[in-house]
Amino acid sequence: MATITECRDALDRLSGNLARAEGGVRGAAALDRTLSCHVTDLDTTFTGRLAGGRIEVDSTVEGPPPAKAQIRLAMESDDLVAMVGGRLNFAKAWASGRVRLEAGFRDLLRLRSLL
Prior knowledge:
Blueprint: H1 4-20, H2 23-29, E1 33-39, E2 44-51, E3 54-62, E4 71-75, H3 77-84, H4 90-95, E5 100-103, H5 105-111
Parallel strand pairs: 1-4
Antiparallel strand pairs: 1-2, 2-3, 4-5
Helix pairs in contact: 1-3
């Protein structure tokens, strides 16, 4: 099981990756939406925004998300770290239920290029 610090570092790396992306990925990451990432095995949620092509984490709270974000992710800590590290494919993890992604239909269409 990864630690909260390792998960936060993974989100920071993902933010940097999105900021350096080009083409369709850059366009998908250019959304301005509230975001939550619930790390289920640590029962911790990172909340913030996807804005300007970056993930801005505002807070870390114990338990499930305190409010319904426009884009909601849920997964185990090891899966978060593995996905950002390139050892776990997001689309396969999502299709198998290891990762949950909830968002509005339009946002899902734009985010599909990130998959």
